Amino acid sequence: MTKFTPLKDRVLIKRAEQEEKTPGGIIIPDTAKEKPVEGEVLAVGNGIRDEHGTLHALEVKVGDKVLFAKWGGNEVKIDGEEYIILKESDILGILNK
Prior knowledge:
- This protein is mainly β.
- The protein is built from no helices and eight strands.
- Strands 6-7-1-2-5-8 form a six-stranded antiparallel β-sheet, with no helix packed on it. Strands 3-4 form a two-stranded antiparallel ribbon.
- It is globular, with a radius of gyration of 15 Å.
- 18% of the residues are buried.
């Protein structure tokens, strides 16, 4: 991947691959699949400054598995790969291992 650094409180995420089958074994066609709301953080911005000029780092870090808002963010292609860029506030939580 090309070196990419999000600005301020933005985060670059690679969506998780969606399951091809339901737990019952039914194969899901591509047209019926929803985009996953789970992914891995690949890059994070430096943080955001408050009204006093203090820089506050982001809570998420590279490698975190996260859940994010279904309709949040911007989808982008970098070097032919699809990613999503979100503000940290669009991330709902970190999945613990």
